[in-house]
Recover the amino acids of this structure.
């Protein structure tokens, strides 16, 4: 009997040891798997802005499972994203960048090797800027008359307030360039957005640049919006940037990230009232501006978000698109060269071909 008891105890101990080893092995397997997933995760630099915040829906929408990859979102100041993507230490794999900033810095960034920065594909466009006046006699340029040279020349003959080297000055350059008008001959005054409104009031300017706040103020003063980015088809394009070597190494992941972005945008824009929850929570934790849902809607209304890769191809990448990136990029490059900001005309980015 005692012998049977000893054998039973030995058997129990052996079973416990086997079970313990099995549990440890399983835990080790999953820990290593999690570590590998973390090591393989695509690290994406984002800034806490109302538009970029849509990408935080990757996790609640289960897009990592859909595309069989891991994404780590790393919040930083907008100004740090480009340098982080370009850094030798590769703290991030992909980030969001401005097309205008990219073209402006292209000659410093790229030297024809694997460390070159690529502007891969568009994400969205800020279209909320424009020009305003308190003088109702000044022409309002719209899609129907933007090709009317007489009206354009009259518009450009006015005293125009525009901050030097800004997207607004590039707008004026683009408009003048379309009709062979020498940009340098225009009567422009270097001024900030807010000071431009005061200059209109004291009549030292006829037209001035305006963002959303300034446009609303002018309309409240019975003024008018004379030209918008949407009418001109000229605006800054925000898109995905990465290093050439990173793209070559993680091409499939990066292209899936772009697909994830469009999935997130389509989800949020389908019902802003109910689908902005995760974006707003992220902004409350990370952004200096705190939005109500109505303020969030108003901010997004100043931007153009293609809802799919197909729409982005049609409206941004195609030459006949509403915001043809090639037309915008060529105007920016010509502006930079004409104004002497760069010594050589920058090379234009070539977007990748990607399917839904």
């Amino acid at each position: 009997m005692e012998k049977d008891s000893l054998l039973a105890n030995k058997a129990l101990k052996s079973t416990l040891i086997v079970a313990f080893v099995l549990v440890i092995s399983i835990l080790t397997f999953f820990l290593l798997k999690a570590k590998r997933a973390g090591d393989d995760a695509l690290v994406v630099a984002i800034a806490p802005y109302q538009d970029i915040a849509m990408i935080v829906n990757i996790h609640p929408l289960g897009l990592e499972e859909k595309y069989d990859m891991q994404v780590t979102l790393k919040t930083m100041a907008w100004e740090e994203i480009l340098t982080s993507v370009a850094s030798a230490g590769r703290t991030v794999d992909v980030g969001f960048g401005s097309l205008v900033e990219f073209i402006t810095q292209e000659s410093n960034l790229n030297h024809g090797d694997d460390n070159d920065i690529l502007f891969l594909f568009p994400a969205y466009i800020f279209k909320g800027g424009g020009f305003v006046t308190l003088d109702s006699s000044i022409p309002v340029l719209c899609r129907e008359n933007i090709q009317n040279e007489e009206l354009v020349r009259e518009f450009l003959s006015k005293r125009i307030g525009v901050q030097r080297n800004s997207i607004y000055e590039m707008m004026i350059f683009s408009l003048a360039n379309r009709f062979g008008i020498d940009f340098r001959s225009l009567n422009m005054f270097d001024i900030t957005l807010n000071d431009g409104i005061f200059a209109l009031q004291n009549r030292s300017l006829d037209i001035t640049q305006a963002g959303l706040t300034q446009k609303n103020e002018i309309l409240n003063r019975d003024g008018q919006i004379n030209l918008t980015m949407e009418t001109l088809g000229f605006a800054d394009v925000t898109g995905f940037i990465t290093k050439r070597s990173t793209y070559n190494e993680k091409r499939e992941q990066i292209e899936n990230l772009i697909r994830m972005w469009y999935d997130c945008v389509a989800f949020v824009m389908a019902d802003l009232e109910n689908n902005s929850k995760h974006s707003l929570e992220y902004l409350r934790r990370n952004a200096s501006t705190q939005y109500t849902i109505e303020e969030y809607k108003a901010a997004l209304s100043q931007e153009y978000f293609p809802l799919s890769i197909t729409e982005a191809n049609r409206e941004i990448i195609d030459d006949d698109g509403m915001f043809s990136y090639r037309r915008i990029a060529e105007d920016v490059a010509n502006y930079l060269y004409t104004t002497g900001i760069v010594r050589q005309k920058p090379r234009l980015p070539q977007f990748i071909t990607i399917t839904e």
